[in-house]
């Protein structure tokens, strides 16, 4: 009797082994990174809703946002952020147009502030934005 090995039989066998490998691939190889899962949920702070990167707040891990963009959620239903030792009230975050509307807490609490200040933000903090 002659021993004959069909190439089709070999290819079929190889195909079954490859399919079996991918079907039984350990789930851990496909699981989401826990760091991503921790940061993927948007959060609310004061009256601002669905906030995400680059902002973060206390109680969330710092790598979920830019270090300079920590929001402080206040009891009076407001959000505040601090840049170069000046505290600002966050009025609006417009993610689609990449705009952040702020008011100094001094001007917010006083209808007639005695002085006006020009404020410049360091450009390196905003380098991720399109211009």
Automatic annotation (TrEMBL):
Cited InterPro entries: WAK_GUB
- Chain ranges passing through the membrane: 7-27
Which membrane topology term applies here? Single-pass membrane protein
Protein name, UniProt field? LEAF RUST 10 DISEASE-RESISTANCE LOCUS RECEPTOR-LIKE PROTEIN KINASE-like 2.1
In terms of Pfam families, this protein maps to:
GUB_WAK_bind
What is one cellular component GO term in this UniProt entry? Answer: membrane
GO MF: kinase activity; polysaccharide binding
Query: Where is each Wall-associated receptor kinase galacturonan-binding domain found?
Result: 39-103
What keywords tag this UniProt record? Answer: Kinase, Membrane, Receptor, Signal, Transferase, Transmembrane, Transmembrane helix
Q: Where in the cell is it found?
A: Membrane
